[in-house]
Write a structure and sequence with these properties.
It is a single chain. By secondary structure, the protein is of the alpha/beta class. It has one domain: Rossmann fold (3-Layer(aba) Sandwich). It is about 25% helix and about 25% strand. It has five helices and seven strands. A seven-stranded mixed β-sheet has the order 1-7-6-2-5-4-3, sandwiched between helices. A hairpin with a 2-residue loop joins β3 and β4. α1 crosses α2. The radius of gyration is 15 Å and the shape is globular. The N and C termini lie close together (about 10 Å). The relative contact order is 0.24. The structure holds adenosine-5'-triphosphate and magnesium ion. Magnesium ion binds next to α2.
C-alpha cells in the first residue's frame, strides 16, 4: 500500500500544472490542500492551474497576497484560494470564514504554517522546494494522515 510521505520531481512549470489538473479532478467539498514552500516555489502556479482546470471558462487567477482569500464557484464546489503570509492573528482565520470553508469547500492554502493549531487534520500537505538541478525544477513532497487521500495517491503514483 502506498504510504505518506511521497516525493517527486516536477521538472518544468508544465509538469506542475499537469499534476495540479490531475489532483483537481478528484476534489470535492471538505478537501483541503496545504501548499507549503518558500517564496517563488510554485504554490500559486499550482493553485492557478488547479482552479483553471475546474472552470468551464478559465479566468484570471490572481495571487491572493493582499486580499488573503479569493473565492471561486466551480462545478465541483465553492473553492477558496488563500495566501496567509500576511495573516495578523489566529482570530482572523475564523473572521475570514476559513474554519467553515475547511469543512464545506475546496480550500487551497498558501503559507499554511500561519494556521498553527487551526491546521485541518484532514488536509493533504504539498511541500514545494527548489531543485539544485535546474532553475525550472521543483521537488514536491506529499503528506497526509487522512486515508481519504489514498485512492488519489494510488492513481497519481501507481
Ligand atoms: N517546475 C515548476 N513548477 C512551478 N513553478 C515553476 C516551475 N519552474 C519555474 N516555475 C516558476 O516559478 C514561479 C513560482 O511563482 P509562484 O508565484 O507560484 O510562487 P509562490 O510559491 O506562490 O510564492 P509566494 O510565496 O510569493 O506566494 C513562477 O514564475 C513559475 O513559472
Ligand atoms: Mg503565491
Amino acid at each position: 500500500m502506498i504510504e505518506s510521505p511521497l516525493h517527486c520531481t516536477l521538472s518544468t512549470p508544465e509538469e506542475t500544472a499537469e499534476l495540479a489538473t490531475d489532483i483537481a479532478g478528484a476534489l470535492g467539498p471538505g478537501d483541503c490542500l496545504l501548499l507549503e514552500g518558500p517564496i517563488g516555489a510554485g504554490k500559486t502556479h499550482f493553485a492557478r492551474h488547479l482552479i483553471q482546470s475546474l472552470q468551464d471558462h478559465p479566468e484570471d487567477v490572481p495571487s491572493p497576497t493582499f486580499t488573503l482569500v479569493q473565492t471561486y464557484d466551480v462545478p465541483a464546489a465553492e473553492l477558496w484560494h488563500a495566501d496567509l503570509y500576511r495573516l495578523t492573528s489566529l482570530d482572523e482565520v475564523e473572521e475570514l470564514g476559513l474554519l467553515s470553508a475547511f469543512d464545506d469547500c475546496i480550500t487551497l492554502i498558501e503559507w499554511p504554517d500561519r494556521l498553527e493549531e487551526l491546521t485541518p487534520t484532514h488536509a493533504l500537505h504539498l511541500t514545494f522546494s527548489l531543485d539544485p538541478d535546474g532553475e525550472d525544477a521543483r521537488r514536491l513532497t506529499l503528506q497526509w494522515s487522512d486515508e481519504k487521500w489514498l485512492p488519489l495517491m494510488e492513481r497519481i503514483f501507481p
